[in-house]
Design a protein that fits this description.
This protein has 186 residues and is an alpha/beta fold. Helix content is 35%, strand content 15%. It has one domain: 3-Layer(aba) Sandwich (Rossmann fold). The chain has a 5-stranded parallel beta sheet with strand order 2-1-3-4-5, sandwiched between helices. Helix 3 links the parallel strand 3 and strand 4. It starts with a strand and ends with a helix. The relative contact order is 0.19.
Length: 186
Amino acid sequence: MQTVREVGVFVGSLRRDSLNRRLAAALPPLAPPTLRLEPVAIDQLPFYNPDFEESLPEAVKVFRARLKRLDALLFVTPEYNRSVPAVLKNALDTGSRPFGQNVWAGKPGAIITSSQGALGGFGANHHLRQSLVFLDVPTLQQPEAYIGHSATLFGADGTLANESTREFLKKFLETFGRWVERHAAR
């Protein structure tokens, strides 16, 4: 019997109807049965402040406890100014502190970036990889997932309608499933 791994999905956009949120919502049915993809909210986190380390706000305690229960991490994010959105960077910082209590460490991860432009969030993808290296998140190297022209991929009902993108994401998630099995804590 295969182990089902819980994968936290972190969307780097706050907009309720963002393209990245739509993309993240399209992923669970494409995932192999060994991965259970669950969204993790990051919009209620206060901006990280070292003063929290003395008395963590409740939202931070809940977030960190949620992260501890995850087997793996999947980031779905747009690119803002060739980097990751502030809300996602804040979540990374919040989970990595206080010093020595990094709850991201050792959890296998993967990144999907998308944008309306042709580059598909290339800058954000690579900038996020830099942070994940420091946070000790073994991140899937290949295939890389840059989803360009994302506004053209969805039907009128908001669902992913582009078949070649669906097939690519299905293969990406199958590879990620193998990556998670190789790197997840036993």
